[in-house]
Amino acid sequence: MVKKTSSPAQSHAKRLDALRKRMVVEDLDYVLITEPSQVRYLAGFTGSNALLLVGQRYAHFLSDPRYRTQAKSEVKGARVSIVLGDLLDQLPNVDSFNGRRSKIGYESHLISERRAQKLREVLPKALWVSFDDLIAPLSQIKDATEIVAIEEAARIADQGLACVMALIQPGIRERDIAAELEYQMQMAGSEKVAFETIVASGPRSALPHGRASMRKLAKGDFVTLDFGATVKGYVSDITRTFVIGNPSARQRRVYDLVYRAQQTATRAARPGVACADLDKAARMVIAKAGQGKYFEHGLGHGIGLAVHEGPAVNSKSKTVLRPGMVITIEPGVYYPGWGGVRIEDDVAITPGGHRVLTRSERKLVVL
């Protein structure tokens, strides 16, 4: 059961407090946030141009005049400054620095080397400390408000799929299916698509990221749809594979293999299970059938404000599942020149196990 949701101000305050605890551990005076989804996660701002400087006693938000009204209404837990020009140039004007030497953390993989060099130029007295993951370990654990948004995005994706099922027939183009699916999700309340919709049919279903093309569907095709909706910035990510016409014995065998792998991993999802072991649970099903070399990607990933975020659910992951994580479980097998199958659900980890958020039929659907 989802706990009572917090207000936006309460949610952002908790996230900032969690980051400040991390700053104490890392001995940081400040953290500079530059990536838009992370600024949104910590302060609630949905625009595209902003910086968030988080200190132990306060947070300072900077944006440009285009976002003056938006920042005033959206930003939580931070002082707002609206400035002209490059936002990095304004960092020396933040009053708390007072010219003193500060230790500032930033996520180096989210900023270009040119911009990193500018950080050193605008605040030459600062000690800039590069991190790969300052925010990700915090955002992996969703609060009740976030899970409600993801679940609604999953519901909209399911509804969109139900609306386009009748379109999936010989002669229709992949792009037509994608366009209608995206339209139906927006009509149902999606703010935007979570990512570019995948519709891959026939031999193209062997492409894990086969974007919708002009190819026309034909009888006997596998058709894979991978898509998602967005609610309050939070996304869903679902994949289903169908067959047009009577499936061959091989198609049934391949689909059943992926279905068993997906269900095996889903049943195993609970707190305390290592993500690497969850990946192994699905991979062993496929490997025992002699098809292991055709499952070439990880089992899944976290979702939230981004469609790919922590935790990684693959053989190299060091993460152990915890309540509040929301992950995808999406095994697949792909045979070049013939076709492939992937089945994907969004799964919330609960204190007692898990809850599947995407509900469209997982067993083989023949159209």
DSSP helix fraction? 25-40%
Could you name the CATH homologous superfamily of the largest domain?
A: Creatinase/methionine aminopeptidase superfamily
Distance between the termini: 35 Å
Mind describing the biggest β-sheet?
6 strands, mixed
Radius of gyration: 23 Å
Second-tier CATH architecture of the largest domain: Alpha-Beta Complex
Low confidence ranges: none
Q: In one word, what is the shape?
A: elongated
Strand order of the largest sheet: 4-3-2-1-5-6
The secondary-structure element order is HEHEEHEEHEHHHEEEEEHHEEEEEEEE
Number of domains: 2
Question: Structural class of the secondary elements?
Answer: alpha+beta
| Average pLDDT rating | 95
Provide an overview of this structure.
The chain has 367 residues and is of the alpha+beta class. The chain has two domains: 8-139, 3-Layer(aba) Sandwich (Creatine Amidinohydrolase, Chain A, domain 1); 144-366, Alpha-Beta Complex (Creatine Amidinohydrolase), CATH 3.90.230. It contains nine helices and 19 strands. The protein has helices at residues 8-26, 36-43, 68-74, 113-122, 136-139, 144-164, 174-187, 249-268, 275-288, and strands at 30-33, 50-55, 59-63, 79-82, 103-107, 127-131, 198-201, 222-227, 230-231, 234-235, 238-243, 300-302, 309-313, 326-329, 332-335, 339-342, 345-350, 353-356, 365-366. The strands form six sheets. A six-stranded mixed beta sheet has the order 4-3-2-1-5-6. Helix 6 (144-164) crosses helix 7 (174-187) and helix 8 (249-268) runs antiparallel to helix 9 (275-288). The protein is elongated, with a radius of gyration of 23 Å. The two termini are 35 Å apart. The mean pLDDT is 95.
